[in-house]
Amino acid sequence: MPALSSAPIPTTSARTEISTAASRSLALSFDRIEKRFGTLFALRGITLEIQPGEFVALLGPNGAGKTTLLRIAALLSTPTRGRVRFTAGSRSPGAQESGDGIPGDSAKRLIGMVGHNPLLYDDLTAAENLKLFAQLYGLDDPAACAAKGLESCGLAERANGIVRTFSRGMRQRLALARALLHGPSLLLLDEPGTGLDRQAVSWLSQTLARLRSEGCTMIMSTHARSESLELATRAVLLGGGRVAEDTRPGGDPRPLLERLRSEN
Amino acid sequence: MKLRIPATIVVAGMMMFAGYAALFIAPDEVTMHAIQRIFYFHVPSWSASFTAFFISFVASVAYLSSKRDQWDWLAVSAAEVGVIACTIGLVTGPLWAKPVWGVWWTWDARLTTTFILWLLYISYLLLRGLIEEPGRRARLAAVFGVFAFLDVPLVYVSNRLWRTQHPAPVMFGGQGSGLDPTMGKVLGFCIGSVMCLMVFILVDRYRLESLRHELDELRQEAETRSIDAQNAPSGVPGAS
Amino acid sequence: MSTARAASIVLAKELRLELRTRELLSATLVFALIVIVMFSYAFDPTPAESRRYGPGLLWIAFLFAGSLMLHPSFAREHAGETMDALRLAPISSFAILLGKMAANFIFLAAAEVILVPVFSVLYDVPLAGILGRLILVLALGTLGLIIAGTVFAAISAHSRMRELMLPLLLLPVLAPLLVAAVQATRALLADPPSLDQAWVVFLAAFDVIFITASWLVCDFLLEE
User: A233: which strand partners?
Assistant: First the structure.
């Protein structure tokens, strides 16, 4: 501990850690969400309560509504009917939900998203991309945040490389770094593993494992074979815009995952 | 639906009488003679198109604030009807202008405004045709509809300011001055009839749009049912 | 974060992207230059005629160049779906729109800074005594063009045939702006030059009305 003199006394420190952990987790509830594109129903009434700190695997065939649901959770898309509610929750098991729903504008600060696309500017460098998003989230010292982000995803050496020249794996790592810049309490991942090489996949799993241990709530849409699924604490299967199966908080997602795997 | 047949008869009767009145009841105009009688359809088409565009604007605003599909149907129906009425105005205008003013067209404030308005709503309809996703189409078209309508007074004012040096051809020397009372009555009746016709077509067009929507919905429903039916036996118990 | 702060971040990003690729500015400039040269071929104007028709030519060139240049403003966010990234951030949609407007204004104004002197030299139209007033008219006109153009670029970015759709939407709406800007510029190039206040007020009113409307509709423009 290099800066021991400036560190607070241990008891306070411990308490701070707990409260950080608590503020880091976010609960969200989907309340009878419907989304129509014209006459096409993408979602037909999804009701789900996601507990703080859960790692939910969102499964289902193409067109089941996984991406739409994640976009609604990310506040990128407004549901045709129903609503999403965010609550700052405590991590301790069995604790009551505390506090009111967090309004959308503040919720945006707590949400990170890794989309199907990396959501990066191809013509900017890795460092410029991260710095831009650090600025947009109003973080102090954006340049330092960007450097830290690059460090965390192992791209510090390529900081000044134009994203266009990056491989899919590098982009996806940078995308995750971008999504984690502002320390979100809820991370949404839309098929983050697609097109990644083995090395990048294991890096992804490690990062997700770390986030899970930190109490970050995560929802990840994926196919049943994904490696990162080992980390999931709950599995939700969507079909035709509805929840087909849900292993519930505290349940064991593995039997469902096993079955889906064997079906494919 | 019950009202439809009587409404058709009433509107058709009104239009027939309007035609008769314009040709035979209205007195002959002193300087322009027979050609002036086009006036009884030219002016009503103009007022009908402006009313329709106004309805479209209101429906666009209502759509944006409520997100109810019905407003979008009304907005597109009114825009289409407005474009038709505006086209009639733009065609009958030059027919009248050529023998009277000696030119088919003149760039005076009213004509230019109408022409630009016509172009704006043609663009509006084109735009709708080129956006695939219905929700997005309705939303973006409504935004354009609002901008287009806001533009109309600006077009008019700019043309008035611009053309002050070039006095525009005068129709009757001013609003209402020297307009024969019979002429006024016939014009009033014609405006009323064309407005009724416009509303009649608008209602019909709106119904078409809502039927189209219903058809889409049924088609979707049929598709999902067939998908559900395919999935059900293959063992997703909670799916149905 | 304030809207102005967020808009300035978006603006800085747009400028950085443009400086890196230099796609927009060079294409816009060359296109407008071609229009200006074509004018000579089409009309073979005398200096007096240039003063009379030049303002119309200049504004037509700006309008066409603008309607081409504005298209990538939103279309190039499609590539990496970066509009989603902007919309994920805790900033208002008006900030995104405003940042883009400011960037587009800078691009078109930069092109004009080069084009207007070129026009002045090629067609022997002296600008020395009217520079300040000319800048006022150019700025007000360009602002209106950019405000409406940026909004419509956001609309046309979602349609098929987007490149074609933008001018179709934009040019009729800009008709009053064109009249006002051309008349104001013409009054400045006339002998003796004068600043036509009615048109300047009209241009300012156009800008205010359209920026207000953009502010009112910006959420619908970018939402899904």
Answer: none
pLDDT at A12 over 90: no
Place of tokens 């051309």: C182
Q: What is the pLDDT of residue A66?
A: 92
Q: What is the pLDDT of residue B167?
A: 44
A contacts of C7 (beta carbons < 8 Å) = none
Using the beta-carbon criterion (under 8 Å), do C159 and B130 form an inter-chain contact? Answer: yes
Angle at which helices A168-180 and A142-152 pack, to 10 degrees?
130
CA–CA distance, A143 with A17 (Å, rounded to integer) = 26
Name the strand (E) or helix (H) holding A16: helix A10-24
In this structure, is the dihedral angle defined by the CA atoms of residues B12, B18, B20 and B23, taken in order, positive or negative? negative
Given this model, what pLDDT does residue C43 score?
A: 87
Say if the Cβ atoms of A38 and B219 lie within 8 Å. no
State mean pLDDT over B169-180. 51
Task: Tell me the pLDDT band of A197, cut-offs 50, 70 and 90.
Answer: confident
Residue C91: pLDDT band with limits 50, 70, 90: very high
By Cβ distance, the residue of A37, A237, A245 closest to B134 is A37
If you write DSSP's letter for every residue of C146-186 in order, what string do you get? Answer: HHHHHHHHHHHTTSTTHHHHHHHHHHHHTHHHHHHHHHHHH
Of the candidates B30, B1, B55, B81, which has an alpha carbon nearest to the alpha carbon of residue B183? B30
Residue type, C120: S
In the prediction, which pLDDT does A223 show?
Answer: 79
pLDDT tens digits, one per residue of C176-191? 999 999 999 999 988 8
What residues does A58 pair with on adjacent strands? Answer: A221, A236
pTM (2 d.p.) = 0.87
Rounded average pLDDT over C131-148: 96
Q: Does B142 touch chain C (CB under 8 A)?
A: yes
Interior/surface letters B104-119, b for 16+ CB within 10 angstroms, e for the rest: eebebbbbbbbbbbbb
Which of A35, A110, A123 is the best mutation test for C, with the most CBs of C within 10 A? A123
Contacts of A149 (CB under 8 A, 6+ apart): A130, A134, A177, A178, A180, A181
Q: Which residues pair with A44 in a beta bridge?
A: A34
**Which residue from A65, A144, A140, A138 is spatially nearest to A108, judged by alpha carbons?**
A138
Q: Does the CB of B107 have a partner CB in chain C at under 8 Å?
A: no
B227–chain A Cβ distance below 8 A for any pair? yes
Q: How many CB pairs under 8 A join A and C?
A: 64
Question: How far does the CA of residue B88 sit from the closest CA of chain C (Å)?
Answer: 20
Spatial distance between the Cα atoms of A41 and B13, rounded to a whole number of angstroms? 45
Chains B, C: CB pairs < 8 Å: 88
> What's the rounded Cα separation, in Å, for the pair C198 and A78?
44
Could you tell me the sign of the dihedral formed by the alpha carbons of B52, B55, B60, B61, in that order? positive
The ipTM assigned to this model is: 0.90
DSSP state, residue B23: I
B108 Cβ contact partners less than 8 Å away, ≥ 6 residues apart? B159, B163, B166, B168, B169
Q: Using CA atoms, how far apart are residues C14 and C99, in angstroms rounded to an integer? A: 8
For A204-209, the CB contacts below 8 A with 24+ separation are A204/A172, A204/A173, A204/A176, A204/A228, A205/A230, A205/A231, A207/A176, A208/A55
pLDDT of residue C147: 96
- C175 Cβ under 8 Å from any chain A Cβ: no
